[in-house]
Amino acid sequence: MPRVKRGTKRRASRAKTLELAKGFFLTKSKLHRAAQEAVEKALRYGYVGRKRKKRDFRSLWIVRIGAACKSNDISYSRFMDGLKKAGVDLNRKVLADIALNDAAGFTTLVAQAKGALPQVAA
Questions:
Q1: What is the pTM of this model?
Q2: Residue (of 80, 85, 78) closest to 95 by Cα position
Q3: Is 88 helix (H, G, I), strand (E, B) or coil?
């Protein structure tokens, strides 16, 4: 089996790892082995974080829509059901923005949703 010394490829690979580890604390930004472990972990956290971000924003939008619904005397679930039945096709991101910045517009959406829901005899 011939001996392989790697040379420039090894140096380039390590330089790339250390570049990714720039700004890490102490040896994690200076020594290859520590930097390699830190970079791998950071990349894993980054991947998970990108997935989590979507979940967190959807949760925030639902809370905002729910709060605006409560001030208009309708529950979040009945509001969303009414919008679907009324044929209003707006996603939660847009609804949350309307609820936050345009109270009158949101009130008209609530009226549409209430109109599409069957009336419950009290």
A1: 0.79
A2: 80
A3: coil
